[in-house]
């Protein structure tokens, strides 16, 4: 018989010794699980509170004003002063259009204006002459009227013959006819004259044509309306620039903002004036200060080319997004890192302030 085999008493003692150890381990595991659950609940609540106070979105893009540079006249491009992606100051020359045809137009308009001035001056002299003739005929008519009145009195007294009275009456009618003719001539001369200075329609028309020609000549030099970067510059010397057709774009370097698209469930907490933290993907580690400027009155789907129709029976509710404009207050600290339109961003709004 082998004495090394454990007896029933030894097995009982071993089981009794292992049981407390197993129970202690299970209690430790349960405590750890409980702590993890409590920590998860606390962490989840903290994250929920953070999400409620700081709604955020990564569906956001940097924006600024873009001006389409289009000439106000048509003509041959004589010179291009900029290259693609060049930064220009406000008022800097962009390109020139051949000014020779427009300079000739200014000369022609100036000559037409001078001719109108001379014509109006001659018409004014004609008006003065017609007025003098009117005064002369009116004086003659007044004299003939007095002679006719005197002749009637003499005829009644028997001191004048019938033929003498008829002669005086005929002279009065002739004087009246002459007066009416000179008045009509004066009216015609005044209509041709049209007045002096700003009252003269011919001078106003000639002056307007001259100013239009001078304005067209000034438009042969295209200058930057604001500071910024020129983009999509494909214009070359010798090309024909069409009036009102954009030649390239100017991205302004003044007012910058972020169009952030938030879920409709977050909009009720967002108000204009709330501070915003803006992170731009192209510049990691940099957080810019911003401020809520405005909130769109409609969702993005409403302003799309084909708004959704929800009249069918297979309609599925989709959370809509509304555009929140966030004004960027500061710029990246490194001047070699400028803001660029269309850059992806992350926006976080502090709704507690």
Describe this structure in words.
This protein is of the alpha+beta class. It folds into two domains: 168 residues, Elongation Factor Tu (Ef-tu), domain 3 (Beta Barrel); 119 residues. Helix 2 runs antiparallel to helix 3 and helix 2 packs antiparallel against helix 4. It is elongated.
- Relative strand content: 15-25%
- The assigned structural class equals alpha+beta
Uncertain runs are none
What is the CA-atom radius of gyration, in angstroms?
48 Å
Number of helices: 4
Q: Estimate percent helicity.
A: 40-55%
Summarize this entry quickly.
The protein is of the alpha+beta class and 353 residues long. 44% of the residues lie in helices and 24% in strands.
Provide the fold topology.
Layout: H1 8-53, E1 56-69, E2 75-80, E3 87-88, E4 93-97, H2 100-157, H3 162-193, H4 201-218, E5 221-223, E6 228-231, E7 240-241, E8 248-263, E9 275-280, E10 287-299, E11 321-328, E12 344-349
Antiparallel strand pairs: 1-8, 1-12, 2-4, 2-7, 3-6, 4-5, 6-8, 8-11, 9-10, 9-12, 10-11
Key structural traits:
four-stranded antiparallel beta sheet, Elongation Factor Tu (Ef-tu), domain 3, 4 helices, 353 residues, elongated, single chain, alpha+beta
């Amino acid at each position: 018989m082998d004495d090394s085999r454990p007896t029933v008493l030894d097995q009982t003692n071993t089981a009794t010794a292992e049981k407390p150890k197993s129970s202690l381990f299970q209690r430790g595991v349960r405590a750890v699980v409980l702590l993890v659950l409590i920590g998860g609940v606390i962490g989840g609540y903290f994250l929920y509170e953070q999400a409620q106070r700081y709604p955020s979105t990564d569906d956001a893009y940097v924006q600024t004003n873009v001006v389409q540079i289009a000439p106000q006249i048509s003509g041959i491009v004589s010179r291009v002063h900029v290259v693609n992606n060049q930064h220009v100051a406000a008022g800097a020359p962009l390109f020139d259009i051949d000014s020779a045809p427009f300079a000739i137009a200014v000369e022609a308009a100036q000559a037409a204006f001078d001719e109108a001035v001379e014509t109006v001056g001659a018409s004014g002299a004609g008006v003065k002459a017609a007025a003098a003739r009117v005064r002369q005929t009116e004086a003659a008519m007044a004299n003939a009227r007095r002679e006719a009145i005197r002749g009637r009195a003499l005829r009644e007294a028997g001191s004048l013959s019938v033929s003498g009275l008829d002669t005086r009456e005929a002279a009065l009618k002739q004087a009246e006819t002459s007066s009416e003719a000179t008045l009509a001539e004066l009216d015609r001369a005044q209509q041709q004259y049209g007045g002096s200075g700003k009252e003269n329609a011919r001078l106003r028309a000639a002056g307007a044509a001259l100013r239009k020609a001078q304005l067209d000549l000034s438009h042969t030099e295209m200058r930057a309306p604001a500071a910024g970067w020129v983009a999509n510059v494909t214009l070359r010397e010798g090309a024909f620039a069409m009036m009102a057709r954009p030649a390239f774009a100017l991205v302004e370097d003044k007012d910058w903002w972020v169009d952030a698209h938030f879920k409709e469930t977050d909009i009720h907490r967002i108000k204009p004036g709330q501070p915003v933290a803006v992170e731009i993907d192209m510049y990691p580690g940099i957080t810019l200060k911003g401020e809520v400027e405005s909130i769109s009155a409609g969702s993005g789907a409403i302003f799309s080319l084909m708004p959704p129709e929800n009249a069918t029976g297979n309609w599925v509710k989709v959370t809509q997004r509304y555009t929140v404009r966030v004004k960027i207050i500061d710029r990246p600290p490194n001047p070699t890192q400028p803001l660029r339109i269309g850059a992806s961003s992350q926006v976080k709004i502090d709704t507690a302030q």
